[in-house]
UniProtKB/TrEMBL annotation:
It comes from the Bacteria. The lineage of its organism: Bacteria, Pseudomonadati, Pseudomonadota, Gammaproteobacteria, Pseudomonadales. This is Fis family transcriptional regulator.
Amino acid sequence: MPPGKRELARIERRLIATLTDACETAKAEIKGFTWLTHTADLSALTATLTVTWVFETEADKTLALTQAKARVFELTATALREADIDLSPSDACVRFDSEQECQRTHGGNWRERLARNTRGQR
């Protein structure tokens, strides 16, 4: 039986809490990292979850992709495990982005940018 609304809300709250912990750790460890967010259809969480890690500049993002990608995946894996979500981080569900690129392409409108960059629409 699929989870009900209450269970989905509980999963969402738990995911937000564990991703917040990952975010705070990354701010202290990864140069140029500023924040993260996630998008998902909770009724199909493992198929639709995307965690977006946002860096200040494209240069910071590029540096993270070459020097901190394993750490980002590790922090994401820990957050998912602690939220009881059975999903291994991969390029399909973890995105790297930057404030600079959002400003350039979407005028700083993250809602629009994230809506266009959800899994399956890349």
